[in-house]
Amino acid sequence: MKTKIVPIDEKNIDKEALKEAGMIIQKGGLVAFPTETVYGLGGNALDKSAAEKIYRAKGRPSDNPLIVHICRMEDMNSIAAQVPETAGKLADAFWPGPLTMILRKSGKVPYETTGGLDTVAVRMPGHKTALALIEAAGGYVAAPSANISGRPSPTQAKYVAEDMYGRIEMILDGGDICIGLESTIVDLTERVPVILRPGYVTKEMLERVLGHVEIDRAVLEDGQAPKAPGMKYKHYAPKGDLTIISGMQEKVVAEINRRCREMEKEGEKVGIIGTDETAAFYETGNIKSAGSRTEESSIARALYRILREFDDEGVTVIYSEAFEEPAEGGGMGQAIMNRLLKAAGHHIVKL
Ligand code: AMP
Ligand code: MG
Description:
The protein is α/β, with parallel strands linked by helices. 31% of the residues lie in helices and 19% in strands. Strands 1-8-2-3-7-4-6-5-9-10-11 form an eleven-stranded mixed β-sheet, sandwiched between helices.
């Protein structure tokens, strides 16, 4: 299959390109498109064969359910069997935006889309191109991240092409992504809302609307069975062997320098994920700053790009600073640390 790559500008959307993309999805094909979180791989959420195509294109296990993206608030009512009051409140507060809600599914959504579950994940994204595409595609677009399963989610169209060229009909290239980490997922099917995956919308932000919210323990602890089926797979993994070093800044820098020298002696190609505050103090290896610690959003945006760059550069061993003590929560640090821990297979050294 030849993949058509079409540039698209959120501020001045090419209507012809959008119509073509919408038709591809309506006919059962796949189109990758930008959202505010990461690039998505879109297919018709109500068509079971489109869902199967998504699993095949990504090499994703078919028990890992897809998020259904909508563009009109009222469409939540047709894919969910019941919409609890909490869902209405969260939609008012955070949609369109980077928040996914788990609800009981209606008969309209095939089990192929929900990985066999009786619940459905639903989100209205806050990106104009995404919203326009969902509308052109008929209103219900299943869209996991547009990467091969197990690789970092794409934050630029070139990374979508790297993974998906020849596997899907079209890629809408909307440039760099704004947030850079996947949506927050909150499960509203239990008595107390539970965060299954942390993201831009934090626990504190949800609690301001709902009162008490819990976090699935598997989000930050190793060895717990996660409630979101997809969170159990090794995800976001770079090719190099990644270790997180956590502790006081100066000690972390010294330890990473020591380990890098040792690894280089053994012939490894080392990469370092540091910050603007520390980058100048590293002595060897391929040093990359994820941004300033005073601006967590820049670190979130840079993380997957850096992991992919290390892959392209043939880095075999990676050391990263830690971004937040997970138990403390708060801000985007928790989402960053959740993805970093998964990328490292939970390999963290505490000094
Ligand atoms: P991605 O599409 O790559 O952003 O991944 C979607 C995530 O949402 C995966 O971790 C899924 O396991 C999770 N998810 C989707 N639907 C459900 C559901 N009904 N219940 C729990 N988790 C879900
Ligand atoms: Mg994904």
